[in-house]
Design a protein that fits this description.
Two copies of one chain form a homodimer. By secondary structure, chain A is of the alpha/beta class. Chain A folds into three domains: 12-55, Orthogonal Bundle (434 Repressor (Amino-terminal Domain)), CATH 1.10.260.40; 69-170 and 303-329, Response regulator (Rossmann fold, 3-Layer(aba) Sandwich); 172-300, Response regulator (Rossmann fold), CATH 3.40.50.2300. Chain A is 44% helix and 17% strand. The first copy, chain A, has 14 helices and twelve strands. In chain A, the strands form two sheets. In chain A, strands 2-1-3-4-5-11 form a six-stranded parallel sheet, sandwiched between helices. In chain A, strand 6, helix 10 and strand 7 (223-226) form a beta-alpha-beta unit. The longest helix of chain A has 16 residues, at 302-317. The radius of gyration of chain A is 26 Å and the shape is elongated. The relative contact order of chain A is 0.12. At the A-B interface, helix 4, helix 5, helix 6, strand 2 and helix 7 of A face helix 4, helix 5, helix 6, strand 2 and helix 7 of B. The structure holds a DNA duplex.
Chain lengths: 339, 339
DNA sequence: GTCGGTCAAGAGAGCGCTCTCTCACCATGG
DNA sequence: CCATGGTGAGAGAGCGCTCTCTTGACCGAC
């Protein structure tokens, strides 16, 4: 299509000529191989400096079959992803870890037609490993993803093709269990929950943990509203919940983003928090502490999760055989004013 | 170092053999060139399907001198970047735009030793364009960045090497001017501001706009505290401000992230907001509306900014000569309860 | 003085792709 | 009937790099 524009960048060849040595020698110097005479290495370094030589990444990738890049795959809508502080924190952790390596992060957000785009990208040899964040059970990508390329999941992958995958997760069930226990301890008995999507492990596990905590006290939730981890979804869930169970006195919301929205809605609906309804969120997002009623919530180590994800990917690339297939990080209940 | 592991992926060559045609023909089919006989194209497509062939990206990049990738360069600490909703929103916009293209985003966060890492990366031919976000005047990267590769800045680049650069910015000065005007309209006269870093254009421009608004009413700020766009910095700035000017009655804080922190601190210090001190933020981050006192703020179209950045980068890559070097997006004052 | 051993540097192939150049083929017109 | 032109497909070079293989220089040893 477009004419090949001359990049005008120096090549190994040019450095070799400049230094009066062979291409191979320059390559050896660039890659720090010890079998090069000191004086010669100095000459080569000088030539590199003079020409401002930087190795071409594509050429290296082609011959080495190694790109020094990791893909972050997000089979989710951009807005849902970026508006969710948990995901952003995971990316922060990944980035922080990669900054200490010489790997580059490739961000691939593919909500539309994820199957084709993602699998093609991973098969193109553009990256050495992939990290999946925000995947759903239905995502073809999980089933499809070539097991030849190291892959790590943020959160337990659900659905087919998930078995044997390496993942790092928060102990969602345990965290939700704590939330349930806490509400009961605060004397609440008419408890409901607003969940995340049940095709995501985080949604499912948080619901299960909460229900189990209630069951241990011979209680059952008076309402379970399944929604989508968005503030808007939470508000609609609240409306339905209160329409059916006006005497609700405790609410566990499966993410802080939703919990803060619920909180605001409850107050505008005339419910005092926590006097009328106690609310517990999940995540300990920044929003939790600055909300109009600072939110009791379950803290999860999201940044750490990102770090561990990147670390696992790096180790898999290295061929490290002892990467733990499953890592589950502990949660902690943070008590604030909403309960 | 590592032995070259056989990728085991089909190559053009193998597809050619499978289809009984030449490499060139397969290449033509893959790239949708019209000069191929229909039947032959069908045969090739079948072979591609059978072998699950996907073109190798590195090989293509090498010969085409085009990577179909854009770098997002962040010469800032990971935490400061990811904890700032404005930056995240910009990334969201960039991603949203790129999703509609077949370009990939390379995220390069390089706070330590940014000069070497960034310039080397850009010189390696790994990307076709670069988008700079969160740059400071001191950043060597700005001066250094090769003008041979299309580059776009989020926010007016300050300092040396900034002249003639393509950038997209919010009308920071005008927004801050509105904030100042609004505080004055609300009857406040003892006005102070907490600024961002003055080596970032956003920090400088917001200060200027605010001071200008005051000057138009023959006022001068009773306090100017320069800090770093972080909540912690805002709190320290507040402490200093109130120690020196206890009768402060209006405060313009140059980012919502800081404004919310200031708000919380002011209230814990016994000041009522807005009765004692009216507060205006900047950005209209999600936090602004959910804060304990919903925040009056200056809205900036951050996601749109990201979209435009990506769009400009794409157009520059296309060789489009009429990319506007300067785009300034309007702001809007959002009145809430803090004033 | 010759030989084998060691080590540094060069020669050259090849990674997977694209693109130009060439050629074969068929249709057309004089 | 042959010259002409147009069209579709193949041959082959080359993008910038790494790596194996080979060469050559130098050393000590017999």
């Amino acid at each position: 299509m477009s004419a090949r524009p001359p990049l005008g960048r120096p090549t190994l060849e040019m450095v070799a000529k400049e230094a009066g040595v062979s291409r191979a020698t320059v390559s050896r110097v660039v890659n720090g191989q010890p079998t090069v005479n000191e004086d010669m290495a100095a000459v080569v370094h000088a030539a590199i400096e003079r020409l401002q030589y930087v190795p071409n990444r594509a050429a290296r990738t082609l011959v080495n079959r190694t790109s020094n890049a990791i893909a972050l795959i997000v089979p989710e809508e951009t807005t849902r992803f970026f508006q969710n502080p948990f995901f952003v924190a995971v990316v922060e952790g990944i980035t922080a870890r990669l900054e200490q390596s010489d790997f580059i992060l490739n961000l691939l957000v593919a909500s539309s037609d994820p199957r084709a785009k993602i699998t093609r990208f991973l098969a193109s040899g553009a990256v050495d490993a992939a990290i999946f964040v925000a995947h759903h059970a239905g995502d073809a990508s999980i089933t499809d993803v070539d097991r030849r390329i190291p892959t790590v999941f943020a959160g337990r992958p659900a659905g087919e093709g998930a078995e044997g995958r390496v993942y790092i997760d928060t102990d969602n069930a345990d965290g939700a269990h704590r939330a349930g226990q806490h509400l009961i301890q605060r004397g609440r008995r008419r408890l409901a929950t607003i969940t995340g999507p049940l095709d995501m492990a985080a949604g499912q596990d948080r619901l299960n943990g909460f229900v189990r905590a209630l069951a241990e006290h011979e209680l059952e939730p008076v309402g379970v509203e399944v929604t989508d981890f968005t503030p808007r979804g939470a508000v609609r869930a609240c409306e339905r919940l209160l329409a059916r169970t006006p005497d609700l006195d405790g609410l566990f919301v499966a993410s802080d983003l939703m919990a803060v929205a619920a909180l605001t809605w409850l107050r505008s609906a005339g419910r005092d928090v926590p006097a009328d309804v106690a609310v517990v969120g999940f995540g300990d997002d920044p929003a939790a502490s600055i909300a109009e009623v600072p939110l009791t919530t379950v803290r999860q180590p999201s940044i750490e999760m990102g770090r561990l994800l990147a670390d696992a990917a790096l180790r898999l690339i290295d061929g490290d055989a002892d990467v733990a297939p499953v890592t589950v990080l502990p949660t902690e209940l943070i008590r604030r004013s909403s309960t």
